[in-house]
Amino acid sequence: MASTQEDNAVNRMHQLQNLGQSVWYDNIHRHLLHSGELEKMIREDGLGGVTSNPTIFEKAIGSGDAYDKPIMALLKNKPGCDSREIFHILAIEDIQSAADLLHQTYEQSQHRDGMVSIEVSPDLAYDTDATIAEAIRLHQLVNRPNVMIKVPATEAGLTAIEELTAEGININATLLFSVKRYRDVAEAYKLGLEKRLRRGQSLCDISSVASFFVSRLDTKVDNILQSLLSDTDNTRHKQIQSLLGKAAIANAKTAYQAYKEIFASDFFKKLAANGARPQRLLWGSTGTKNPSFSDTLYVDALIGPDTVNTIPPATYQAFRDHGNPQRTLDTAINEAHQVLSALKELNIDLQTITTELEDEGVRQFADSYHALIAVIDKKRQSLEAP
């Protein structure tokens, strides 16, 4: 029989869902899929989805030997197969397995949840046509109705998001840091739906999320605030100190206000009358990076209806243990605006910072992808050695 602590932990995840927020898991690896661990999380916690990215796959394939036998089998059955092809085969197998485990959730949620995300190569983030072609290829290869294709929301990615939505492909628009870019993504989604409607095609069952990254903004802003603290007077010192750890949550709450405005518009109501669903905001990068903050900060502070939080493993366990499931996303909105105004008064330009974060995010995922290919190269060499 489960312990009281375990019961309470499970209830915290269910309480999030009762408040209208879907819980997804920001992690994938073969042991999670084959050990029954993911199935247990779906069954006991009501887990509603899985997200992946090149960094997650790098850790999954590079750590331990879980992928050694599959790589050996590929080398034997497909001689001449290069490391990139090996990665794509392994990743697609993992995504398919996760999608199959979540298929019942997909059906029970009327195709709202039960989603598994796989990302187009970050090397294509600034190439619209190549992103579209890669997304269509991945969609066809995975061949599951509950797959989402992750597209970085760069300028080039916006057109790709519009065109892929028009093709009826579920899109996870990722690496969002600014409210302005979020509005651009929502517009691309709506235009894609409108284009599809004009063609006489169905809008039903198209699901999309906009992945708004959270904690990385605090890391950037707080570094600037700390530098200001070193040479300011006491009055200013207190004001600056009060802003630490506040920028990311204020920014996210502002994005949620934009979401409510966008999808309550007359334009979207016409699409909704034809079966369209709102593109939900998904909170990404919700692990706490500053050890002086609560380890559940970016879950506790962003709970609200019609949203998703994709939670990394350590934060997931922390929230199950001691998270605080209360509706917080649409509270203290005036305070959020005051935080953003105070940052502006200090000449902290969030638009510049979020543009830097987008560039860094694309570069980091590209670096992880290249590191992953290097890991597979090394494994190949060791496995092929006599």
Describe the structure.
The structure is a single chain. This protein has helices at 4-18, 30-34, 37-45, 54-62, 68-77, 83-101, 103-108, 128-142, 155-166, 179-198, 215-229, 234-243, 247-262, 266-272, 297-300, 313-322, 333-345, 350-384, and strands at residues 21-25, 49-50, 115-119, 147-152, 171-176, 208-213, 280-284, 307-311. With 386 residues, it is α/β, with parallel strands linked by helices. The chain has a single domain, classed as TIM Barrel. Strands 1-2-3-4-5-6-7-8 form an 8-stranded parallel beta barrel, surrounded by 9 helices. It is globular and about 70 Å long. Residues 1-9 have low confidence and may be disordered.
Distance between the termini: 50 Å
- SSE pattern: HEHHEHHHHEHEHEHEHHHHEHEHHH
CATH top level assignment: Alpha Beta
Helical fraction: 55-70%
Structural class by sheet pairing and helices: alpha/beta
